[in-house]
């Protein structure tokens, strides 16, 4: 085993993978992945909302073969996990998008390609045989957005997840201080930082500068925006609304998800419009600092929807047991972003596989120890003190 | 750009401006601005009361042009912000009052001149064309108080905000230890501290010692009081009461605000007396250490008033999103004190502009990200778990 | 002014006096005063219970002459403070009992002499002209206890406060580690510690070793017990019960207080037996670690008693505003122990005066700032969120 | 007294014994005992759940001879304590099982031998005359399990406690990093660690490598599993269920306990099946990280059972007062694991005696100070704010 392989094998938790990634990556890149908006109150709140929930275990149930197989969007998944869309991943590892997607495919869970990925829609579809979803950012030019949707349809993506919580780029102060951008604009400080992380720098030199491959030529100003978030935000359409969603619903014939939902009334309205799945998210604490934690918003969304649509949740998942708690709170699956990217940053595809392996291993263990033979049988009563009848 | 301009431009948050101010100012001056009373429990509680409130975002609303224009005291304001009255500002920057007022004027928000300002009522009125309010401390001599009111009326101030929470000076232990006073009494320690902050010291030497310009000759004992707060407190009338407020209401023909309200019953009585606006405040945690946080008192005041008067709130505002939360809790605007003064201490008028720019920028972003196209449409339901029907 | 006088004058708070005392005293003595039982959970909880309560201020009330005069046990007190009984005080300052009693007398508040004081009942009565109460520990020998009661009666003490929460000495681990005892048994470590605190050591040498003056010859074994608390506990009667209290009530013709009450049912029963005042206390967190905070027990005791007896409270008072909160919660006065002793340890009688001056000054200020012209008019509504109707 | 005896005598609390153990043991061994699963959230929660509960003391009750004698499983115990089963104890001290059992016997409390003990069922029964219970892990081979039960019956164990919360080994990351196993597999790091702890290393060399004496030859693969927990988990039967429990109930004629219960519905069902006692436990935070604290699960179990079975509780007990709180919450006794083993690690049998002595001494004191003359009279009303009528 190489030293890198040994490090991956020795990583016991997502926190371990994060530590390896922190050592390997220049600070600007690590903080771009790890950080949140403003005072990072929502970032911290997301984690706390999972941690403070406690399980009341059941015993004397045969858990010799706990099944975490489930159905997501009408098709089987080997575990209640989905890869969340992430842009700019190639800053962490060359072709990190492909690395993570291959790991997801191998693990039998869906992968969501970001509009702001550094791998094109078509390349991903050719390279990976697994379940692929496409995350759509609504660009200011309607024609550009339409083209993205058409490309995703043509490339065979089974689902479209339209993101509705990036009406503008979040105020990520760490990125503003670090001056991170894509394509990278190298200051003396960045060069120095790169020299201090030679394995990363060599990879970058060999691989060439990553680009937003799906939106080449579509962004208004190639160089604009002090941060990646700001540049993305400037190119998105903040006027996009319920009517536009209705049109998208009509245009896209396959499964449609809306990502970034928090309010029960919004959820109800989406369901009535034929949205297939709601993705409860606050963008990992990277957008509105002050947004409610995902795990707190989730049960009210579930109560509002009453089973008429599927529910995903992200933001704050770091342990396999979080997936069990999320299922108890009403989600069909949890989406993992940073967890997978820490893995890829620590060791490419092998690292991404390790991340998924850690989480599914922890979930399997949590199922055994909580008396859960089948992930589809989990109900809210598994959690201590969670109101079992809600509404909002 | 000069180094100072670069520092201002690099300030991303009010916390950054505070850091610049801390470096620039002698410790005694910085702590006079930054500190609170006794154990600073209320100071910390103010901030926590804003931070712990979480927003449940709405999506799919056109937020391409979020409007933060609003009406305050029957006249338009470009944003739901007001500059809170602050005394002794010239300790932080020469003519800081004017610097902040000009910045407020440029930003289209009202400015409140303190009775204890280092700029006179008349000079301010001549120098600045924007909306000006006058904050009234009730002096022990009724005639002196009357004269202040007459001067404010003659100078055209559109509103009078009478402060009712300084029955005595708060016990600000940092000031007592630092021995801060106005006009400054220079000890060896102060001289040394000044030498360690040469840019500040040079400014002070050039500008001359600041004075309480509005009350020259009115304070009982020019040298009394171990701290600024104590000296102010000794010169105010602790017997001033409801009858006096009624008389003031009769004498002052324009808008009348009462600043320092916390109790719903007090609020109701003021409304019944024709007070135009209630200013919920605990003086930034500088008076009664143990007072309820402003953001906790606010919704009960709003419930008690039921729309029959306008409401302002201060104490603890450090981020633009706090204004959104305050609106949701029932305030028409938030007043900012330290935030603006940190800006002025960091760079005079440019610094004050930067402070307002940061807060309005953050508010605009928070409005977009929370689905709030119009600040006047915000209701309590925006906040997680806030009781929507109250009373007290 | 001497250096010591300057230090006292510079002390702004009880925390400052505590710091001076910590510097002056050998560690074993300081920790004996400052510490609590076991993990000091109750010690910390006492303080937190005061700090977390918040006041909703009233305004526009004439507070030019706030009156903190009140009635305690049917006689006037200049302020709602009482000195709590403390044993072994002479370890901190020679004749600290007298120093504190004189300071209390000067301030017009009652002083409670401990059974375990280092000044005799008679000497105190002759030396001090103020209101004197005697705190009674029930010794194992009934005759010894009777004798104490008779001596207190003969010496003219106006009230007897029988302590009921020292069925055994608390497990004060700091004392066990430090090996503190009375009369002091000097180990090499103690001698070294004394040499490192020469002003204290010189005082002790001059004054001679302090003794438990009230119980000379009454304690079973002069040298027993690894700590002061243990030795005291071993000599008290853990069988003392309701019947004994009834007999004491019959024997003592003046005011009778019971100190160490926490449970509403106990309080009701005492009232029905003719006890004049209940003293809510957990012995400053020095006895049962895990006992409810005094400020949490207080309102339920007040509800149970319904005005049929007076109520005192101690444990955790460090600021003047705590007395205001305690009044709002139903107490007639707060008893201060460590606060006064920190003062005496810092500077004898002058230090004790300074402690009382700080607390009464802070209370007067808190009354002004909360709109409280008269301490006797304070009700529970002054506090945020405190249930105004209780019971238990 | 030897130095070791002095250290034991100087240990005032379980925390002190833990400190001695930490110094004496190699890090891998200490952390195996001290640590919990994953992020140790449940480990910390267990302690906090005891600490945050507060007692409302009663006074004026004769507590001169507090009786902590009670009945457990129909036979007398000198105190409401039981030794919890612990495997691999000989890593801490040679024959630690016997040391702890002898200490328990001397103290008049039951001892529970672990299936994974390093002392055989028969040897323990011969060596110790006290009350012995046997803790049963259900092995994958039914015949092996049956044999264990038969051996326990033949050896005269009065009760069988079947553990139901180890469906798999918990994810104890400290152990995974330290590479602890039984029998020990010595890496260079372990040898070095041993050399740094010579008194421990010498003991081990003299005593020989400890083995799982009860399951010699029964474990599937002598070398399997990266940690002790993993190896144990791999050899247990995760399919063991309610039917199996019913069969065990039929086969075992004496008292049957189920250890690891948290859910009230599980508790009710066990009671209906004739289980004699429920042992509320989350395995000391070593299994499911995210499980509810034992002291939080306890009162609901008590409400569900309604007195139809006895209840034990473990996980988080570190002070004698915890036993009083556990009694108030509905348990008949608390089981102590780490507390006793820290004692044994600090000084063998004398250390284990010291641990029990500390806890019973603290409990006696807590009983006196809370007005509890008889442990059997404790009710839930002793605790502040604990709902006295429950259910689940």
TrEMBL record, chains A, B, C, D:
<feature type="binding site">
    <location>
        <position position="137"/>
    </location>
    <ligand>
        <name>glyoxylate</name>
    </ligand>
</feature>
<feature type="binding site">
    <location>
        <begin position="85"/>
        <end position="87"/>
    </location>
    <ligand>
        <name>FMN</name>
    </ligand>
</feature>
<comment type="similarity">
    <text>Belongs to the FMN-dependent alpha-hydroxy acid dehydrogenase family.</text>
</comment>
<keyword id="KW-0288">FMN</keyword>
<feature type="active site" description="Proton acceptor">
    <location>
        <position position="283"/>
    </location>
</feature>
<keyword id="KW-0560">Oxidoreductase</keyword>
<dbReference type="InterPro" id="IPR000262">
    <property type="entry name" value="FMN-dep_DH"/>
</dbReference>
<protein>
    <submittedName>
        <fullName>Alpha-hydroxy-acid oxidizing protein</fullName>
    </submittedName>
</protein>
<feature type="binding site">
    <location>
        <position position="163"/>
    </location>
    <ligand>
        <name>FMN</name>
    </ligand>
</feature>
<feature type="domain" description="FMN hydroxy acid dehydrogenase">
    <location>
        <begin position="6"/>
        <end position="388"/>
    </location>
</feature>
<dbReference type="GO" id="GO:0010181">
    <property type="term" value="F:FMN binding"/>
</dbReference>
<feature type="binding site">
    <location>
        <position position="283"/>
    </location>
    <ligand>
        <name>glyoxylate</name>
    </ligand>
</feature>
<feature type="binding site">
    <location>
        <begin position="337"/>
        <end position="338"/>
    </location>
    <ligand>
        <name>FMN</name>
    </ligand>
</feature>
<dbReference type="InterPro" id="IPR008259">
    <property type="entry name" value="FMN_hydac_DH_AS"/>
</dbReference>
<feature type="binding site">
    <location>
        <position position="259"/>
    </location>
    <ligand>
        <name>FMN</name>
    </ligand>
</feature>
<feature type="binding site">
    <location>
        <begin position="314"/>
        <end position="318"/>
    </location>
    <ligand>
        <name>FMN</name>
    </ligand>
</feature>
<dbReference type="InterPro" id="IPR013785">
    <property type="entry name" value="Aldolase_TIM"/>
</dbReference>
<dbReference type="InterPro" id="IPR012133">
    <property type="entry name" value="Alpha-hydoxy_acid_DH_FMN"/>
</dbReference>
<feature type="binding site">
    <location>
        <position position="281"/>
    </location>
    <ligand>
        <name>FMN</name>
    </ligand>
</feature>
<dbReference type="GO" id="GO:0016614">
    <property type="term" value="F:oxidoreductase activity, acting on CH-OH group of donors"/>
</dbReference>
<feature type="binding site">
    <location>
        <position position="286"/>
    </location>
    <ligand>
        <name>glyoxylate</name>
    </ligand>
</feature>
<feature type="binding site">
    <location>
        <position position="114"/>
    </location>
    <ligand>
        <name>FMN</name>
    </ligand>
</feature>
<feature type="binding site">
    <location>
        <position position="172"/>
    </location>
    <ligand>
        <name>glyoxylate</name>
    </ligand>
</feature>
<feature type="binding site">
    <location>
        <position position="135"/>
    </location>
    <ligand>
        <name>FMN</name>
    </ligand>
</feature>
<keyword id="KW-0285">Flavoprotein</keyword>
<dbReference type="Pfam" id="PF01070">
    <property type="entry name" value="FMN_dh"/>
</dbReference>
<dbReference type="InterPro" id="IPR037396">
    <property type="entry name" value="FMN_HAD"/>
</dbReference>
